[in-house]
Amino acid sequence: MIGTEIPVLAVLCGDRRPPDMDAVEAAAEIRYTDEKGLPDALRGADALFVYDFLSTAVPGAWHAADRIRWVHIASAGVDPVMFPELRESDVVLTNSRGVFDDSIAEYVLGVVIAFAKDLPRSLELQRQRRWQHRESERVAGRRALVVGTGPIGRAIARLLRAAGLDVSGMGRRARGEDPDFGTVHASADLVRVAAGFDYVIAVAPLTDETKGMFDAAAFAAMKPSARFVNVGRGELVVTDELVTALRAGEIAGAALDVFDTEPLPVDHPLWTLDNVVISPHMSGDFVGWRNTLVEVFADNFARWRDGRPLRNVVDKQLGYVPSGH
């Protein structure tokens, strides 16, 4: 609640301004800025909208944030703004949870089917004009482990179950009788349980506990026929150890939408592996997604102006929005 004064809103957006901001612009003084101008935009601002959610500029400019009370990021992941000064402050942090759930789930189902039906090889043979008959796998009856039990993970679980897969989850703590996953394993048990699954899907938030959780030990524990899918964060994976596992045949393939370095360098060995599907951090980006992100922010802005409870409030100690919030 900020009373009757006109709030000052800094918007980190670079050269691409967010669409459909008319309602917000009518109710606030807006300072659109790129990374270079962020410190000046933050001085005297009441709130910050991190529309450029891939930017890592906020920590370096935070010294100028002398009045900020609320930060909203246009993504589900909040790791770009999880620096100590913000984490330890009383500034409220919200994210855009819910925007990308179904589209990311569709991507995951798509790559599962692509692997099972050997579609990448079919496209390559088509380009070569080669008629090469092969047998393909069924997806029904295969087992999938979804590592990350938030809304995106649940959307993935529901869609994979609808396709006939047997789905389990993995989260901070083990539990049974979950409505979407059935059984949820504890993340600490990844190496112990990974061998039981044909697809291992990473969608966990990036935290101190999850960073690098997919390492040599995790890949060695998986079936040689297993496929790994990462739609979470690139830093969940020790990339060099994934490359080694793929080359050694410790796992059969990987579909990767996120990387620890983006864009993926042109000379990176992942480009050369024929058992890898690469997409440029686009699994959730459906037509109109930018407008939807602004709708989520504009709704929260109206709530903030009116003093009503905000949606998608992040627990800054956990690094994500707890279930039920």
UniProtKB/TrEMBL annotation:
SUPFAM superfamilies: Formate/glycerate dehydrogenase catalytic domain-like, NAD(P)-binding Rossmann-fold domains
Annotated Pfam families: 2-Hacid_dh (PF00389), 2-Hacid_dh_C (PF02826)
Span of domain D-isomer specific 2-hydroxyacid dehydrogenase catalytic: 17-314
Coiled-coil blocks: none
GO molecular function: NAD binding; oxidoreductase activity, acting on the CH-OH group of donors, NAD or NADP as acceptor
Gene source species: Amycolatopsis sacchari
Chain ranges of the D-isomer specific 2-hydroxyacid dehydrogenase NAD-binding domain: 110-283
Protein name in UniProt: Phosphoglycerate dehydrogenase
Stated family: Belongs to the D-isomer specific 2-hydroxyacid dehydrogenase family.
